[in-house]
Amino acid sequence: MTQSKTFPCPVPRYSELVASTERWLAGEGFTCQKLQTEDGGTLLQIEKVGGWRKYVGISTALNIVFHQVENTVNVEMGAGRWMDKAVTGAVGFLILWPLAIIPGIGAWLQMKMPERVFEHIARFLSPYANRTDPN
C-alpha cells in the first residue's frame, strides 16, 4: 500500500530535506540507499539495520520517493516486506502460536513508519525550522 503527501517546499530546501531525512533515518537505525528515479525524483530505499530481524520476521523496509514540483514536494512511501511478515506469521501460528506475535510486531512497526517519516518532513519544512537543521 502506497501512501503519499504533498508539502510546501521551496526549491532550495529540497536537497536539504532529502539529506535531513537520510540523517534522521540513520539515527533511527536504518540503512539508506539513495537513487535517482527515471522521472527525476529521489528514491530512498531504507531497511532497519540488523540481519537477525529478517530471521524473526521484524525486518522493516520502505521505499520513499521525493518529487519536487515547483515550490512543493510530493513524498510517496511503499512497504518493502509485507509478504514475509504474513508468511512468517502464518507459519509461526500453525507451528508454535506464540511465534506469531513477533511478525505481528514487525508489521505494526512497519505500518507506523510512514507516519513517522511524514512527521519528520513536516517538522523540517515548518516555517519555524532552523535553516541548518541538525537532523
Structural write-up:
The chain is an alpha+beta fold. The protein is built from four helices and five strands, in the order βαββαββαα. A five-stranded antiparallel β-sheet has the order 1-5-4-3-2, covered by helices on one side. Helix 1 runs antiparallel to helix 4 and helix 3 (82-95) packs antiparallel against helix 4. The two termini are 27 Å apart. A hairpin with a 5-residue loop joins strand 2 and strand 3.
CATH-defined architecture? 2-Layer Sandwich
Overall pLDDT: 76
Strand content: 25-35%
Number of strands: 5
Shape: globular
CATH class membership: Alpha Beta
| Number of structural domains | 1
Helix count equals: 4
> What summary fits the major beta sheet?
5 strands, antiparallel
- First CA to last CA: what distance? 27 Å
List the helices and strands and how they pair.
Layout: E1 2-8, H1 11-27, E2 30-36, E3 42-48, H2 52-56, E4 61-69, E5 72-79, H3 82-95, H4 101-125
Antiparallel strand pairs: 1-5, 2-3, 3-4, 4-5
Helix pairs in contact: 1-4, 3-4
What brief labels describe this structure?
5 strands, 135 residues, five-stranded antiparallel sheet, alpha+beta, TATA-Binding Protein
Summarize the entry for a quick read:
The protein is built from four helices and five strands. It is of the alpha+beta class. It has a five-stranded antiparallel sheet with strand order 1-5-4-3-2, with helices on one face.
